[in-house]
Amino acid sequence: FRFKDSLAEDLRRADLVISHAGAGSCLETLEKGKPLVVVINEKLMDNHQLELAKQLHRDGHVLCCNCSTLVETLQSMDLSTLKPFPPGQPEKFALFLDKVVGFQ
Amino acid sequence: TGGHTTEILRLLSCLSESYSPIHYIFADSDKMSEAKIRSFEQKRAETFSNSKFTLDRIPRSREVRQSWTSSVVTTLYSILYSLPLTYKLKPDLILCNGPGTCVPVCISALLLGLLGIKRAIIVYVESICRVETLSLSGKILYYFSDYFIVQWPDLKEKYPKSVYLGRIV
């Protein structure tokens, strides 16, 4: 398919996700707790889009490769090395904002 | 737009009932944000029956990778548009997270503050996607916001006046 409104259903059923380094794709996948292999195409990407993928890789949440190393990565990967991705904490933001605005 | 809307709705998700009415401002070219916002507000109304919100569209200030000179022109146009809107809404607090749309609104709010008409607190939250560098909106609003929040420690080091709360979306 080309475009779907939501990949939530496909994500739910997947055992492994192979994706480009777009932030939305990466975060949505990690939040559903699915193992993720990020394929980086430096020619196509904005440098800033790579920042998140690189950081997630550094933190051990995703595997990274490029188009030519994808097959090798899939053959030799050990998904158990991936660390779970804890959810963000908007409650911390709410606490901060309450102080800023004066609601306590 | 897109990711920004998702992020801002997450930021709003834990706010108390006191943050009302919420005025959402987004780009006229944005087709998907309205639906996301309405859906969010519908759920919010289940907990806070008195919550109120409004939706307003302004011309998009800048397309991705638009040239600098034409960006200045389109941003000025957006400011002309957002100034009367901001004057009408007179917000106490502006929360924004990086789309070009937020710059004209914040500039309008700053102008209203300078003119003694209404002083808004401007809180900027940089996107979770920004790990090592700030967005263009971020680079501008770092100097003009009251509170500038980043979500990764690298940025806190590079921009010492920023606030780091960890990942909040």
Care to give the gist of this entry?
Chain A is α/β, with parallel strands linked by helices and 104 residues long.
Fold-level CATH name of chain A: Rossmann fold
SSE pattern of chain A: HEHEHEHH
* Secondary structure: number of strands of chain A: 3
CATH class division of chain B = Alpha Beta
Low-pLDDT segments, ≥5 res of chain B: none
Amino- and carboxy-terminal Cα gap of chain B: 16 Å
Largest sheet composition of chain A: 3 strands, parallel
Number of structural units classed as domains of chain A: 1
Oligomer class: heterodimer
Helix content percent band of chain A = 40-55%
Assign the CATH class of chain A.
Alpha Beta
CATH superfamily of chain A: Glycogen Phosphorylase B
Features of this protein?
heterodimer, A: 104 residues, alpha/beta, Rossmann fold, 3-stranded parallel beta sheet, 3 strands, 12% strand, B: 169 residues, 4-stranded parallel beta sheet, two-stranded parallel ribbon, 6 helices, 6 strands, globular
Q: How would you summarize the topology of this molecule?
A:
The complex is a heterodimer of chains A (104) and B (169).
Chain A lengths: L7 H6 L3 E3 L3 H9 L4 E5 L6 H12 L4 E4 L3 H7 L13 H12 L3
Chain B lengths: L1 H11 L9 E6 L5 H15 L5 E6 L9 H22 L3 E4 L5 H13 L6 E5 L10 H9 L2 E4 L2 H6 L4 E2 L5
Parallel strand pairs in B: 1-2, 3-4, 4-5, 5-6
Describe this structure in words.
The complex is a heterodimer of chains A (104) and B (169). Chain A is of the alpha/beta class. Chain A has one domain (7-101): Rossmann fold, CATH 3.40.50. In chain A, 44% of the residues lie in helices and 12% in strands. Chain A is built from five helices and three strands, in the order αβαβαβαα. Chain A has helices at residues 8-13, 23-31, 47-58, 70-76, 90-101; strands spanning 17-19, 36-40, 63-66. A three-stranded parallel sheet of chain A has the order 1-2-3, sandwiched between helices. Chain A is elongated, with a radius of gyration of 17 Å. With 169 residues, chain B is α/β, with parallel strands linked by helices. Chain B has one domain: Rossmann fold (3-Layer(aba) Sandwich), CATH 3.40.50. Helices cover 45% and strands 16% of the residues of chain B. Chain B has six helices and six strands. Chain B has helices spanning 2-12, 33-47, 68-89, 102-114, 136-144, 153-158, and strands at residues 22-27, 53-58, 93-96, 121-125, 147-150, 163-164. In chain B, the strands form two sheets. Chain B has a four-stranded parallel sheet with strand order 3-4-5-6. In chain B, strands 1-2 form a two-stranded parallel ribbon. In chain B, helix 6 (153-158) links the parallel strand 5 and strand 6. The model of chain B has no long low-confidence stretch (mean pLDDT 93). The A-B interface holds A 23-24, 27, 48-49, 51-52, 54-55, 86, 88-94, 96-98, 100-101, 103 and B 2-3, 6, 10-16, 18-19, 92-93, 95, 121, 123, 125, 127-133, 135, 146-147, 149, 151-152, 163, 165-169. Chain A: InterPro entries: Alg13-like, Glyco_trans_28_C. Chain A: It holds the Pfam family Glyco_tran_28_C. Chain A: Residues 1-87 form the Glycosyl transferase family 28 C-terminal domain. Chain A: GO terms for molecular function: N-acetylglucosaminyldiphosphodolichol N-acetylglucosaminyltransferase activity. Chain A: It is found in: Endoplasmic reticulum. Chain B: Pfam families: Alg14.
